[in-house]
Amino acid sequence: xxxxxxGTSEITGARFSIYPMSDRFVDIILSxxxxxxxxxxWMMTDDVSTCVRGRSEHVFDVLxxxxxxxxxxxxxxxxxxxxxxxxxxxxxxxxxxxxxxxLMNNELSQKISQKVAAQFALYPLGIPGYMDVIMDQVKxxxxxxxxxxxxxxxxxxxxDANKVFAAMESAFEGARNSDSSHIxxxxxxxxxxxxxxxxx
Length: 200
Fold this sequence. Notes:
alpha+beta, 5 helices, eight-stranded antiparallel sheet, 8 strands
């Protein structure tokens, strides 16, 4: 019997969907994808969502750039994403783990100023002290100035999208460095919402 080998545990993946609240949603999504360099990640889209996989920094770089480019026109855009690292069955994206650390989209993303509201939840799997890991990373987000408090089943962040993504990535990376072998993080992010309060 052939031995089945799992992939590199360091692979980070994100399955996400972008929802532009506009009748031009197809153009918004396609134009945002056109602006983003995805050469350092494995990416596949189906009729429900898109999956991006590779080195953690490149997964976050690509997802941030896609969201920012989708929201730059002022339309209300929502991102729904699930990040994962350490999945024991992850293997199809191994080739991209050899990429260097240069972020292909960071220069473009840093030029885009966009206020966002986000909710995230961390799930460190397989360890009894998971709440300690979660609370440590919430403190990390708070130190970066974008934490807005806890909500039911999540924590909220508000601020510039680049800063929110940086805090979110820091929390994910911090959880990766815990004793948990598999980390999952869920994120919902909104830009240009008509219901957003000015003081948020």
